[in-house]
Amino acid sequence: MMKKTTVVKTSATKTLAKKTTKKGEKNIVAKRSSKTNAINNDSKSINAVIIGKQVWMTRNLDVLKFRNGDDIKLAKNVSEWKKLNEKEIPACCYYDGDDAVKDNKTLLYNWFAVIDKRGLAPKGWIVPSLDDWNELVTFVGSDKKSLRKLKSKEIWDGSAYLVNNSFGTNKTGFNLMPTGERTFPSSEFHSAKLSAILWTSNPARTKSAYFVEFDFSNKYISSFGYKQLGLAVRCIKK
After folding, report:
1. Would 194 be classed as within a structural domain?
2. What is the pLDDT of residue 45?
3. Which of 10, 98, 162, 176 is most buried (most C-beta within 10 Å)?
4. CB neighbours of 222 closer than 8 A, spacing ≥ 6?
């Protein structure tokens, strides 16, 4: 049986508080804005959920500026994306190629943006490590029924692969929607309604870094790929 999770619902004007879950254990209760779901670099409008001992954002990062205020290069076409990646310049792009995912304004980042010293995550937040993701899955449960509790009830569609229950139940409040990906070196968009693929902060080899994937068949895997891939980012409380 999965342990209790808490969706935090507080005013954006209130300060962070601490919540005791067990004797000697404390969790940070993050802010939930009643006005907007948009994630800003000033940390003033962030929805969060407590799952185990962790505090996670309830949606993926969609910032166009680093924490210090510098703009993140936004690639608007294939040529721009390729040029920025060839020079290993931190960059992002909006998913294009599927209306449902496109309308959700999914932002994909290369790994150079993830590890940039100017800070991709808002103040007080970080890009999770592979260990952070594994801790989340261990707490919720790695079986298919448990993993569905992390996934959103919308957009997922595995019908092309004869999977009819690819959607989630979102019982944790994590609300993970499919993100798709931008491949390298072709710079094509793939897996629109099939997978949520998210960066970790861990490098793998000289030219690659680790990511995690939750797919339409309710599986969780970790792997690594080119740092020039365009993948989503979900942040965890520091």
Report:
1. yes
2. 75
3. 176
4. 130, 133, 134, 200, 210, 211, 212, 213
Any domain includes 86? no
What are the distances in angstroms from CA 137 to CA 132, 143, 144, 220? 9, 9, 11, 8
- Mean per-residue pLDDT, 4-24: 37
Residue 189: give the domain boundaries.
59-64+92-237
Query: pLDDT band at 192, cuts 50/70/90?
Result: confident
Both tokens of 4, joined, read 């209790």
Residues 6+ apart with CB under 8 A from 28: 16, 17, 18, 19, 55, 237
Please list, in sequence order, all residues whose beta carbon lies within 8 angstroms of the beta carbon of residue 143, skipping any fewer than 6 positions away. none
Looking at residue 102, its pLDDT comes to 62
Number of domains in the chain: 1
- Mean of pLDDT values over 125-141: 98
Please give the structure tokens belonging to residue 21: 């879950």
State the DSSP H helix or E strand holding residue 203, giving kind and residue range, or none if neither.
Answer: strand 195-205
Residue 43: which pLDDT band, with cuts at 50, 70 and 90? low
Q: Would 166 be classed as within a structural domain?
A: yes
How many CA atoms, within 13 angstroms, populate the side-chain half-sphere of residue 150? Answer: 30
Q: Which amino acid is at 9?
A: K
10 Å CB burial of residue 228 (0-12, 13-18, 19+) is buried
